[in-house]
Design brief:
By secondary structure, the protein is of the alpha+beta class. The chain has helices at residues 17-29, 59-66, 81-89, 98-105, 107-116, 130-138, 229-246, 280-283, 288-296, 330-334, 365-378, and strands spanning 9-13, 32-37, 50-53, 71-74, 93-94, 124-127, 146-150, 160-163, 177-181, 185-195, 201-203, 207-211, 218-223, 250-259, 264-270, 309-316, 323-328, 339-343, 348-349, 354-362, 380-383. The longest helix is centred in the middle third of the chain and has 18 residues, at 229-246. The chain is globular, with a radius of gyration of 21 Å.
């Protein structure tokens, strides 16, 4: 397939920061791109060939956009899958497939998929709405504590809550949900797998994630993870089995728990470039964004090994600030060796909004982590 400096059009559903970083690579390869996003000032607007404003959940909008391109991919899961299915029938190459995305969009379906395919995941129960869950607790069918997860539209820590008493359910929406066993774990890990339509598969090194205790957002990503070779092999195997079970094309980020008993359990997956892979831009031979592009276009996959150890720290809006963004002390972190900031182009900040990230590379992972801490404590995302 001839895609370089050609009329082959790649469409991206979603125009946020993931799409913007994907477009770094389409511009490098001179690949024609079209982007659809509801925000007329989305970060992708400045870097694609054609930008369209529209609702990603509207069938007609997604279908009409998809007919303009040859290969269609996503940078966000919340899109109209019925339109994707219709586009597949029209001959558009859609990756991930409509079937895969329909399963991943719904956490209850996603968890059932793991059970059906013998993939390790925490025990759970599925509930149609909150009142059903409350009855289950009152009748001792649902033990406490557990992790409540909205079946749909959860993102960046939203739609997830630890429930220790029935009163914790008070402010939760009355929607389909799952109650997942609260598993004691030592670390949260992730493995990104790339897979082409022809079946070539490559996995990136296992990363270790550290989360913000309040926002439930990834705060730091460390690569390589500080785990044993045995645990590394276990995590890689689970991720590869998961990608194979989905017959996935593109990137699949597999988030994992390492339990107190050294078991590996799947938390959830993302069928696109992911926050856990941002450090690959500076630290790996092939960035996750270039790899996703290679995969969906059925090109040879790039080398996934690290050139150097890397740590990513998210830049999120500071609490107490809303409005036009200011990156306070960014000049100070630019003086540090091995530090690269990425600013996403969102003009307005709010508490915990992802505004950018910083990658720190160093031959020693623990030293990179120490510099990342210094970066985190120095730069502040505030408003004017």
């Amino acid at each position: 397939m001839h895609v370089f400096s050609s009329q082959h059009k790649v469409g991206i559903l979603g125009g946020g920061q993931l799409g913007k970083m994907l477009l770094y690579n389409t511009r490098k390869f001179d690949i024609y791109t079209c982007v659809l996003d509801p925000n007329p000032e989305a970060p992708c607007k400045i870097a694609c060939n054609e930008f369209f404003v529209g609702d990603l959940m509207d069938f007609d909008t997604v279908f009409e956009f998809g007919k303009k391109v040859d290969t269609l991919t996503i940078e966000i899961e919340n899109v109209n899958v019925d339109a994707l299915s219709a586009l597949e029938k029209e001959g558009v190459k859609v990756y991930p497939s409509a079937e895969t995305l329909a399963t991943i969009q719904n956490k209850a379906k996603q968890k059932l998929f793991y059970v059906d395919h013998g993939l390790p995941t925490a025990d759970f129960k599925r509930y149609a709405y909150i009142d059903e869950l409350k009855r289950a607790i009152k009748h001792n069918v649902q033990p406490l504590p557990f992790v409540w997860k909205s079946a749909q539209f959860g993102y960046d820590g939203k739609g997830v809550k630890i429930v220790r008493t029935i009163t914790d359910l008070g402010e939760l929406p009355n929607v389909e949900c799952i109650a997942e066993t609260l598993v004691p774990f030592k670390k949260e890990l992730a493995v990104t797998v790339a897979r082409t339509p022809d079946g070539e598969v490559k996995a990136y090194p296992v990363v270790e994630m550290e989360f913000h205790p309040e926002a439930n957002q990834v705060e730091y990503v460390l690569c390589p993870a500080r785990i044993s070779k045995n645990i590394t092999k276990k995590a890689e195997l689970v991720a590869l089995r998961t990608a194979a079970a989905f017959h996935h094309v593109g990137l699949l980020a597999v988030e994992l728990f390492l339990t107190e008993n050294d078991e590996i359990l799947i938390n959830e997956v993302a069928p696109r470039p992911h926050n856990s892979g941002h450090q690959t831009i500076e630290a790996s031979y092939t960035s996750q964004f270039e790899q996703h592009l290679r995969a969906v276009l059925n090109l040879p996959l790039g080398e996934t090994e690290n050139k150097v150890s890397g740590v990513m720290v998210n830049l999120v809006g500071a609490e107490g600030y809303r409005g036009l963004v200011v990156y306070e002390n960014i000049e100070k972190i630019l003086k540090l060796n091995g530090v690269t900031p990425h600013i996403y182009g969102k003009k307005e900040t709010r508490p915990f909004r992802k505004m950018g990230h910083v990658t720190i590379v160093h031959p020693e992972i623990n030293e990179a982590r120490a510099i990342a801490q210094q970066v985190k404590e120095t730069i502040k995302v505030i408003s004017k």
